[in-house]
Amino acid sequence: MCGIAGYIGDRNAPEILFDMLKRLEYRGYDSAGIACISDQGVTVFKDKGKVDEVRGKVDCEKILSKTGIAHTRWATHGEPSEYNAHPHSDCTGRFIVAHNGIIENYKDLRAGLTGRGHKFESETDTEVIPHLIEELYTESFEAAFREALKKLRGSFAIVAISTLEPDKILIARKDSPLIVGLGNGENFIASDTPAILPNTKKILILDDFDYGVVTKNSVAIKDIQTGDELKKKVQTIQWNIKQAEKEGYPHFMLKEIFEEPEAVKNAIKALKGVEDIAKKLTRYKRIYFVACGTASYAGLMGKYLLERFSIPSDAVSASEFRYSTINTIDSDCAIIAVSQSGETADTIASVKKAKDKGAYILSIVNVLGSTLTRISDDNIYTYSGPEIAVASTKAYLGQMTSITVLGLYLAREFGKIDGDYVNEIIDDISNLPGKIQQILSNEDEIKELARKLSDKDIFFYIGRRLNYPTALEGALKIKEISYVHAEAYPAGELKHGPLALLEKGVPVVAINPNDDLLEKMDSNIQEARARNAIILVVGENGDLKTPMIDPLLSPILYVVPLHLFAYYISVFKGLDPDKPRNLAKSVTVE
Ligand code: F6R
């Protein structure tokens, strides 16, 4: 949700900033801009469009600047346009700001500032920030910046520069991620690690209510309220630069689908502490999986898995949990938050509220050092590597692997499952990467199926129990990257309404593991077939063929052809699966 960047050092700032923005583009891509300080003063260039389109209009070499800030936008307030694109300036052009988040009290602030003669040029909430700094400035940029921050409500990650003090970038964070990458005689600021990976692996992570003063040779992080300097630990990013590049694949999404075997391997490698966590979980009367989007389907699969072993649990979308389920939470509850980014606003808010009510918090997260990991009692990392495509794929497999192992250990702790059977399934999990690879080697068949169906304007996905979430995930992937209507239903629900929509040629994807409900699923498939629907079965003898697998592990395997299928539907429609319209990765606003 918007990417922000900053650079201060001895190199050409515009080039570096556009490179950084390109690596943050998954966070938003409706407009982009840079503001750089040079001997000629400040140069601001911004426009509607993706980073490369905007970059193409700027002669970076002509801007002789070594300090600047930048932004790639996902519009919240105001349509994508040149005037709404960041960075934004005050009336005098002396204070320039880029921002990720939402300033909730911007209307009041704007009215007050307008009353004092300030002129606004955009519809954004962000523009109040440079005007506030202008209003509060007496003799110190830092002092005015800090006073301005105290007046903001909502969420923000901010980078700011001033022509009055061109040797520094000021930064701040509340509820939106921000890191500083530490170089030699240069420093980098970014919303996320992929932006700084080519330059440094050493980072400082800002916490909520931190602000900072960054020069080319120093970084001071301070407390917004007191102004006191804070000690921050330098952390080392574990990812390498190659992981954040396409490496010959046409899209990140395809690369990430082909990394699914690795994602399962990595999730298993990292599961050492899980037995202890499972022991801890036995203390709680009720377990809630809380997450958004694809991660919420991994959570829903977790609920079905625990119910399979008679362990009470629920899975609730974080955007609902924080306002409704939260009223039922107390210290007898355990929350399992699931998130690739660890920065999703609704998930974080749910966790914070549940924590206040005394619940135990376990997070299953991909990004190390992310906000969620720092507010949880325990973390299970999935180590899926950077996921750049907006649509989550490999991270989902990592999440489901971790949740499955956790669920099995928990069932064993509760005495609901035989220890030998658990060991057997864990062995089976280690065979999963090979089985996923087998599915991926059928890429051409899946591609051909997608080609044939790429002109359809509606898809149905059906599944039962553990694979109902697989159906939801399959449908979501089609929706978000192909803009085609797709509905997922528990298979038994079809005849309670949606069957009315089935007619000749409508594709119905049926997730059909070889388990005790196979015959029930077959009946549901027949019901659809009788309406002349096109049936695509995912399973051992299906149209989207999958290797033999213990039904408990089938959700981890059966989603793989669905990811590939959705990817190719999008490609055959001539769309960019990496950057679906209206969406962005890492949803840091409510
Ligand atoms: C769908 C997708 C989103 C995310 C959701 C949660 O393909 O990517 O639905 O799963 O925004 O994001 P995280 O996992 O980062 O909390």
Descriptive terms for the model:
Rossmann fold; alpha/beta; Glutamine Phosphoribosylpyrophosphate, subunit 1, domain 1; 18 helices; 3 domains; single chain
Provide structural commentary.
This protein is an alpha/beta fold. It folds into three domains: 3-237, Glutamine Phosphoribosylpyrophosphate, subunit 1, domain 1 (4-Layer Sandwich); 246-430, 3-Layer(aba) Sandwich (Rossmann fold); 439-590, 3-Layer(aba) Sandwich (Rossmann fold). Strands 3-2-4-1-10-9-11-14 form an eight-stranded antiparallel sheet. Strands 5-6-7-8-12-13 form a six-stranded antiparallel sheet. α7 (260-269) runs parallel beside α13 and α13 runs antiparallel to α18 (554-572). The longest helix is centred in the C-terminal third of the chain and has 22 residues, at 419-440. The N and C termini lie close together (11 Å). The mean pLDDT is 95. Bound molecules: fructose -6-phosphate.
What is the CATH topology assignment of the largest domain? Glutamine Phosphoribosylpyrophosphate, subunit 1, domain 1
Uncertain ranges? none
Gyration radius from CA atoms, angstroms:
25 Å
CATH architecture of the largest domain: 4-Layer Sandwich
Order of strands in the sheet with most strands: 3-2-4-1-10-9-11-14
Number of domains: 3
Q: What is the CATH superfamily of the largest domain? A: Aminohydrolase, N-terminal nucleophile (Ntn) domain
Structural class by helix and strand composition: alpha/beta
